[in-house]
Amino acid sequence: MTTAQFYCQYCTASLLGKKYVLKDDSLFCVTCYDRVFSNYCEECKKPIESDSKDLCYKDRHWHEGCFKCTKCNHSLVEKPFAAKDERLLCTECYSNECSSKCFHCKRTIMPGSRKMEFKGNYWHETCFVCENCRQPIGTKPLISKESGNFCVPCFEKEFAHYCNFCKKVITSGGITFCDQLWHKECFLCSGCRKDLCEEQFMSRDDYPFCVDCYNHLYANKCVACSKPISGLTGAKFICFQDSQWHSECFNCGKCSVSLVGKGFLTQNKEIFCQKCGSGMDSDI
Predict the structure, then answer these.
(1) What is said about its interaction partners and assembly (predicted)?
(2) Which fold, 160-217?
(3) Which of 26-32's residues contact partners 24+ apart within 8 Å by CB, and which partners?
(4) How far apart are CA 217 and CA 210, in angstroms?
(5) How many whole angstroms from its chain centre is CA 197?
(6) Domain residue ranges in the chain
(7) How much of the chain is helix, strand and coil, in % rounded to 5?
(8) Which residue blocks in the chain are alpha helix, DSSP H?
(9) Class of domain 95-157
């Protein structure tokens, strides 16, 4: 570069014997460079001149003396920091303001440390322990109660109920029948093994049966229609001398008139109204 070319690219003033700045192969006097190219500090809003250190983070610029934590005002130069809502925070302030608090000890869970999450709450790994044995649960299966979280062995030992059918632990839900507990999937008809969880059922000798099996195995049969007489849904029936009828089947064997609430006569296990039975040899 010749002496004739040694001038400011912006104001054309000679740079001989003066400070200058080289940018993109062009020369600028300090005054022009600062006015044209200087970045403005995010903190003090003043230009960061060529003789000052320019600290940059995500296209934002600070004077070295302005690069501070926005909460405690301590310098962040050559120190770890974090950004939240465009604010710069030292790691301690960021942790206190933004990090999760341990549900057990209420202390901050520091960035970078392992934390456990369960039901929207957070724990230090060392605080997330079984309420009974106090051993860390980590990622192992757990069961939660109002009194705390429990590892499976402790829960089974302290609280669990066992299914009357399969003898295994009932961890949730279940069905109670005759003061015994069943898993829903274990509560089956003792005859056909049909699932009774959402079905009507009958019992016999403390065993559950679906309606069809119970009627087939144990229900009395109507003398008239030979179909089972079930007590479900409030069905009414008539009993007389060890015989049973559906109320709608309790009719005169000759004229078919209903005999419910009326006098009747019997002959050879048949029933008749008094009019049709007159003159017959009958037992009242």
Answers:
(1) Interacts with CREM (via the third LIM domain). Interacts (via second LIM domain) with SPAG8.
(2) Cysteine Rich Protein (2.10.110)
(3) 32/8
(4) 11
(5) 24
(6) 18-84, 95-157, 160-217
(7) 15, 30, 50
(8) 30-37, 91-98, 152-158, 211-217, 274-277
(9) mainly beta
Does this chain's domain 18-84 share its CATH topology with 95-157?
Answer: yes
**241 φ/ψ sector (left φ>0, alpha ψ -120 to 50, else beta):** left
Between the alpha carbon of residue 258 and those of residues 74, 125, 224, 226, the distances in Å are 101, 78, 13, 18
Q: In this predicted structure, what is the pLDDT of residue 76? A: 92
Residue 232 backbone phi and psi in degrees, to 5: -70, 155
197/177 Cα distance (integer angstroms): 11
Cα 65 to Cα 53: distance, rounded to the nearest angstrom: 9
pLDDT at 135: 92
Pairwise CA distance, residues 261 & 49, whole Å? 113
pTM confidence score: 0.37
Instruction: Give the pLDDT confidence of 68-115 residue by residue, as tens digits.
Output: 998 899 999 988 888 888 888 888 787 777 677 888 888 877 766 788
Better pLDDT: 150 or 145: 150
Q: What CATH architecture is 18-84?
A: Ribbon (2.10)
